[in-house]
Design a protein that fits this description.
The structure is a homodimer. Chain A has twelve helices and 18 strands. The first copy, chain A, is α/β, with parallel strands linked by helices. In chain A, the strands form four sheets. Chain A has an eight-stranded mixed β-sheet with strand order 3-6-2-1-9-11-12-10, sandwiched between helices. A six-stranded antiparallel β-sheet of chain A has the order 14-15-13-16-18-17. In chain A, strand 17 and strand 18 form a beta hairpin. In chain A, helix 6 packs parallel to helix 8 and helix 7 runs antiparallel to helix 8. The radius of gyration of chain A is 24 Å and the shape is globular.
Chain lengths: ~425, ~425
């Protein structure tokens, strides 16, 4: 049984006219001989409207009840779309999270998928041409409806594609693929035909909003061929794939920009064992995610420590850091700065080629852009800079690595 | 475990202010030491809005998909109300039809309950003080969401009360009980403290809109004590009970009026075996419900046959009757009249007292109201009359049987 998974976001199903375009995509898959598994989000606006309803009735809505309520968004969109399929003479039915079942943990509002029942899905696929599955939702061990959090429908789609060993998972969205960088910043930004899972993970976590990061993790783990493409055109988009030989000579795939950064500097931190734990432990317990961390060499028994957090968590992070002072850090001085951003150079080619970092630092230096912090991984170099230089840095790096020019990266999938 | 079942209709949960009144009713039950099972309808207007959405997307919406969509109405109301309970510090959770589970047949849109899992409910009741259960919905043998049809939440409530052997099932509605007749017609109509299941069945089927008829059948079958009362007051309403000694001397309980009647008369019907079947068979196959039937004595091998149908089915019924003519009924003449209505005198006391029918005919005769058709059962006498006499007939009968006066019918339940 050849199975094609297609996922459509909220703007793709927002009204009857849009759903009719989706219908054509599904029929195209049927004509190509696939059994179709279609994952839908709620109609654009519905999820926000339902969340607002929760907040109207309760100052602090119970998470499980909120999930039961908010999951009705996908229940509505899947029923409506299945009606269209049936009116077109296609054997189809809607399948809700509990009907698959897609089992999750009980972290309501941000649940994680633990298993998907393949047997039941195969039985349904033997009976129907198209299964229209509600994204974003599952069922907890205690039998209650759970939701996967924002962007969860991407994860539903990739997880279902993995479970069903699908030929491909097409993620239809309102952009036509993954770009070398934000086209609003660099007008010569180019759509990538291919990108590796690892690069996409870096792009996604760096603020490239195309795919929810957990769906990319899932795709990587189960090697799901994912095709990110536009609902509103037939042009091929970007394929997410495993690293292969063809890609070796492509040094850098893209430049990511993350403005959601705030820097905290601790001056005169006592440099003794347990100090880092004394600061980052309480932050972690309060669910404050720390991104970059730099510690300067010690001098006279004290050191400077700098780290970044998301801007909306700055206030919380500062109060936690202040509260650690009584623990033998009285002389410590706390400073902060929100006018910073992070530019990242991403590419699997870095693994085998030296000099990418040196080149990046060099071109930023030539534009008089001061690098405040640096962090690197095998396939990424990130620099924290003053936010006013954000666009200049992105354009400069994009041009320095020739990302605006067509590169050989293999043929796109059809 | 003493369990109290409470059911609230759409107008009782239509907004936050109304839900807060419902909250008080539930807390009262808790204070009285009950475990509470609360059945909710969708918020007023939601079900109609969701049905309209189905019709916007499909000229003939798939029944199963429509049920999946429309059932979100109760999913929303139960989640919102449970949030209020939790905010008040009460251990509560919502339970959807599939979570109970309430199993139905697969007649989507008008499904019938086949079983309710008591074990699971008792397990939940051990853990929670209040279960907020979505009315109107269940799950079909193939695991799809089904709905019970209009007024189905009443049936959900009574069925759950029966399954749980509840102390009582309180049906909260926007009227304060069952009346001897429509107070808009007879200003001295009186609220009944008690009514038997059989009388209520006759009242319900006669157009008394207080309770859905299937819920009364369920209550009768499982002897569920049902209390019909108002959400917006604390006054006792009407208890539905089994017939008992106390009620024997109450001759007549109420007068029902059904305006939804149309009469069809077949003149010169050949009077030979199989003719009735030749007419009523095709009507039944087309789902046209025939109410009263009268056949005159035969004369010269032909007879007149008169029957009534609901007004909206008159056209359909007429075309079916015309289509039977070729089958040896060529000389038959078909006439019809929509300006008729049915008044019924209802009371279990009739079983043991003669003369109720004679008295009813007599008082109508004295008002010059011509009786067009008569049908009777053990506890009911129905007369078809011209519609223009409807109110006069109801008032006359109501007074003739002294229904405006307080009668001993036992103490109301608190």
């Amino acid at each position: 049984m050849r199975i094609l998974v297609q996922k459509f976001g909220g703007t793709s199903v927002k009204d009857l006219a849009c759903m009719k375009q989706v219908l054509e995509k599904v029929k195209k898959g049927l004509h190509e001989g696939f059994k179709m598994v279609v994952i839908l989000s709620a109609r654009a606006g519905d999820t926000n409207r339902l969340l607002a309803l929760c907040n109207e009735y309760s100052p602090n809505p119970d998470a499980a009840e909120c999930d039961s309520l908010v999951s009705t968004g996908e229940q509505v969109s899947t029923a409506l779309f299945t009606m269209l399929l049936k009116d077109d003479g296609i054997k189809a039915r809607s399948v809700l999270g509990f009907q698959v079942p897609i089992t999750t943990n009980d972290a309501y509002g941000k649940a994680r998928i633990s298993s998907i029942d393949k047997t039941q899905l195969h039985r349904l696929l033997a009976e129907y041409e198209v299964l229209v599955i509600a994204g974003f939702q599952g069922i907890s061990p205690s039998g209650r409806i759970s939701t996967l959090g924002r962007g969860g429908s991407d994860t539903s789609a990739v997880a279902l594609a993995a479970a069903l060993d699908a030929f491909r998972c097409d993620i239809y969205t309102d952009v036509d693929g993954v770009y070398t960088t934000d086209p609003n910043i660099a007008s010569n930004a180019r759509k990538l035909n291919r990108i590796t899972y690892d690069e996409m993970l870096e792009m996604a976590s760096m603020g490239s909003k195309v795919l929810e990061i957990r769906s990319v993790e899932f795709a990587k783990k189960y090697k799901v061929p994912v095709h990110v493409r536009s609902t509103f055109s037939d042009a091929p988009g970007t394929m997410l794939i495993q690293e292969d030989k063809k890609m070796e000579h492509v040094l850098v795939s893209g430049i990511a920009l993350d403005r959601d950064q705030a820097r905290i500097t601790l001056r005169n931190c006592p440099d003794k064992p347990g100090v880092s734990a004394g600061i980052f432990g309480p932050l972690s317990e309060a669910n404050v995610t720390v991104d970059m961390i730099v510690q300067n060499p010690s001098r006279d028994g004290v050191t400077d420590m700098t780290f970044t957090v998301a801007r909306k968590e700055l206030k919380k992070a500062l109060s936690i850091v202040e509260s650690t002072k009584p623990n033998g850090m009285n002389g410590m001085e706390v400073m902060h700065d929100s006018n910073v951003c992070k530019v990242s150079v991403i590419g699997v080619g870095m693994r085998n080629h030296a000099g990418v970092a040196a080149k990046a630092f060099d071109v930023l230096f030539h534009e008089n852009i001061n690098i405040l912090m640096i962090s690197t991984s095998e396939i990424k170099i990130s620099c924290l800079i003053e936010e006013k230089y954000a666009e200049l840095a992105v354009r400069t790096l994009h041009d320095a690595f020739n990302l605006g020019e067509e590169q050989f990266e293999g043929e796109p999938e059809k």
